[in-house]
Amino acid sequence: MASRGKPLQDYMNSIETLTSHLAFLISVSTTYRYGREEDEVMGVKFSKELILCRDQIIPVKKEKQETTLIQDRLMRRLGSNAYPFMFHFPQTAPCSVTLQPGDDDQGKPLGVEYAVKIFVADSEEDKGHKRSSVSLAIKKLQYAPPIRGRRLPSSLVSKGFTFSQGKLNLEVTLDKELYYHGEKVAANITVTNNSRKAVKNIKLFVVQHCEVTMVNAQFSRHVASLETREGCPITPGASFTKQFYLVPLASSNKDRRGIALDGHLKDDDVNLASSTLVAEGKCPTEAMGIVISYSIRVKLNCGTLGGELVTDVPFKLMHPSPGAIERENAILKKSKSIDKARYENSCYANDDDDNIIFEDFARLRLNEPE
Hints:
alpha+beta, 5-stranded mixed β-sheet, 5 helices, 15 strands, about 35% strand
């Protein structure tokens, strides 16, 4: 046993000596794939990889750095061999987006993905090797502004037929400009038929628009749809007003090729890709990666000879900022209580029979469950 102990001790000492001359580096990289991997021939690459930031974590170069609460908890749990690090994404870094592949697609999916890579190197300038590195896939998501705003997107279009047949008017208004993932998109539709044609049916779509900036390619996909004959036919001289609801969800588009998702990690339930927010004064085409936008599209079908009347109303679909939903619910609750107090005070100001009857109906309305 003693004869075997010395070679083992020498081996351990040699490992410690070797390790002391090595450095552990960490980097955050993004890969922007804008073409299919199976189409890469003759050395042509349809992807671009960029190193966003890079630093050395062992040996420690910085004397002390600020850490987050989660990092402090992890360090206490993992012990002295845990080394914290922190990176900041550049403002121009695109959000994570994955274009859902089809059944026949091979290779890596198109989109923008991020990874944290830690590797062993001989020096700070060393790029490392795949066999001596560990990678962790991460997402970069963008939150919605803390306040949604009060603007109601709308569109008013008309379709003229011959001079004697008049016009068909379509007005579409949304109840919000910005929706959170999973919320209902409410579209208010008003049709005024001053023509001699009849509207046979109404179709509504939530359209996802994608722009691949690297190759200037644009395409659109329907991520929610509804067709109805309610109120139809809308005959000449008639009008129709109705509110319709659509819910765009990734779970409803699992088998559809080309749908843009908010990145994709293993066994992860993803959302549809969020709308791309562009800084004030900047053009959307200047943004890197895949630019995402949404609109509600409404079609009125006027038959074979009459054709269709179509309009699009843009809106944003995003993740709520932390605490945004709680703040909105608190504001709504406070607003309801103020309105209820104002109403009750106004009811008792003029105590007559008419007010008593009106008060009974109004109280029932105020106490209705949402």
